[in-house]
Design brief:
4% strand, single chain, 47% helix, 273 residues, two-stranded antiparallel ribbon, 8 helices
């Protein structure tokens, strides 16, 4: 080979080796040889703001019809009566089973019943005014007669007659049908004084201190209820007469009084207090 060609060949080899050395990949710490990647700028992503739903507000409470056209209590009236019953039975001395005569007298006085309409008070006053040696025992004897002849549910705890929850509902429904005007005033006076301490058994929240509108009660007195009550009064007076006659026979009572002071009576327009 001529010398000139040999010299050109050597120079070309040197140039190729130099070029190859400059194109070696960068060394990576993990031992892998990689060609450098081209960096591409990424847009900055702001954190997404959390969106909360608007708070849900409970529906505003409104009084609705308390007694259905069938003369049965609506669920709202049942809840109200349950709350009232629980309020009294939870007040010391507590007794969840119902009202004994002392609790009965206290509860119905708080419910704005007059002494003439508060049966325990009425019978106790009658016995005190007519010389019974133990007015309390007289009440314990007569209240079962009243409950039985008026078809009001009760139980006996020893010698004590106890008005049950069902009996309280029966009494309130009867009195509301018998005189809705009076009962409307009674309930509203009671709620004004104690309403915030009555817990709605459905919601667990206190009943609002809102007056019950008259329209929530029956428009007028129920004639069928009045007629049924008159029949119950006659049954009560008959059984009471037999009881008083027995007291006279055994010498436990000698006064001669009329039955007017003891009759259960039918609803009469009178002041509540």
């Amino acid at each position: 080979m001529p010398f000139r060609q040999f010299l050109v060949s050597v120079m070309n080899n040197v140039a190729q080796q130099y070029t190859a050395q400059n194109q070696q990949p960068y060394y990576q710490p993990n031992g892998a040889f990689q060609r450098p990647q081209q960096y591409t700028a990424q847009p900055y992503m702001y954190p997404q703001q959390q969106v909360f739903p608007p708070p849900t507000m409970p529906p505003a409470f409104t009084w609705d019809t308390l007694i259905a056209p069938s003369n049965q209590p609506t669920p709202l009236f049942t809840r109200l009566l349950d709350a009232i019953f629980t309020y009294f039975t939870s007040t010391p001395p507590t007794d969840p089973s119902g009202f004994d005569p002392i609790k009965y007298a206290s509860a119905f006085t708080t419910l704005m019943y007059s002494d003439a309409d508060n049966k325990v008070r009425r019978y106790f006053i009658f016995a005190s005014q007519n010389g019974f040696p133990s007015p309390e025992n007289f009440v314990y004897d007569v209240m079962p007669i009243y409950y039985r002849t008026n078809r009001i549910q009760y139980t006996m705890q020893g010698t004590l007659p106890v008005l049950t929850r069902e009996g309280f509902h029966t009494t309130m429904l009867r009195d509301t049908l018998g005189d809705p005007d009076v009962q409307c005033r009674r309930f509203n006076m009671f709620l004004a004084a104690h309403g915030t301490r009555l817990l709605d058994p459905l919601t667990g929240q206190p009943f609002p201190s809102l007056a019950i509108p008259r329209a929530a009660f029956p428009a007028g007195m129920d004639q069928v209820t009045w007629e049924r009550q008159e029949q119950m009064n006659r049954a009560f007076n008959e059984e009471l007469g037999e009881y008083l006659a027995e007291l006279r026979r055994v010498g436990r009572w000698t006064h001669d009084v009329t039955m007017a002071g003891m009759s259960s009576g039918v609803w009469v327009h009178r002041d509540l207090m």
